[in-house]
């Protein structure tokens, strides 16, 4: 299967998104969670039609979006969602912040599992709560939830768990037994699990994802899930996300009435097309991601044998362990300054991020090889 990452570098340099404008033109940018793909054809057509109609007003009836997502969830995860269980947000971050505000009081704690998506930290700050780190264990093998640590945190009074599933930056898909155990702990302590599942559509071939809310009565009783087409279909700038809740649906009914107005109408249009028509495109993407992950492993073995990363099961992120290179706490800074390759800084992911960097391999094989060669050339 031909790689989906076939956009020439000269074309990518013309883009105005964060990935291609935050660094000088001599830098190969591999940090920001965007991919070097062209829009799926039905998504592009739907957006062109909206522009031709000058259909760029406020977000309106969300019914078609809800139905498109319900169909997508049923096909991909055998997840049968009631229409009234779905709420819309501008993006997952907005949703998480607003829901945390409803579930907590200022200064309360929220469990997170570092090293984890750096935006979790400012989200918690905006919600007026404190991070309660319960680091993943077995990190060298891709990480596993420290269930005992979560239980201790909840026993001490924390009542919200912010879960990253699949996990960013490891690309780990938490197993169903592990998630059921987490749900039992949450129910035992009257806690709510907020499951950020934005990377779930990008499971690599043969790697099933089990959404949190599908894993039994305890999960349905304790969970609120958040997701979007934005990562899998490269639509982050269009602003459209959904949340799903079963027993916790009453929380979503208390959201400020202005929240849905933040959804972009073009984000809705694009998401409906992606969820409805682009299963084949997504399958091609996930095969290309798995191929790139294997290529990255081979390239590192050849050019940077001291650098390793746990095998990602989903998405386009590699958590590079650079500690053997002795580049200090933030190797990404070294690779940028000396090799002109931009990666995400490991320390920004929280505890256990020192000596690491996150690489986004959602790019062409040629660009990936060029980046690793440059990184190798950056060594003292």
UniProtKB/TrEMBL annotation:
This is cysteine-S-conjugate beta-lyase. It holds the Pfam family Aminotran_1_2. GO terms for molecular function: cysteine-S-conjugate beta-lyase activity; pyridoxal phosphate binding. SUPFAM superfamilies: PLP-dependent transferases. CDD domains: AAT_like. The keyword Phosphoprotein does not apply. Its EC number is 4.4.1.13. It comes from Actinomadura namibiensis. Keywords: Lyase, Pyridoxal phosphate. The keyword Repeat does not apply. It is an enzyme of class 4 (lyase). It comes from the Bacteria. Belongs to the class-II pyridoxal-phosphate-dependent aminotransferase family. MalY/PatB cystathionine beta-lyase subfamily. Residues 31-374 form the Aminotransferase class I/classII large domain.
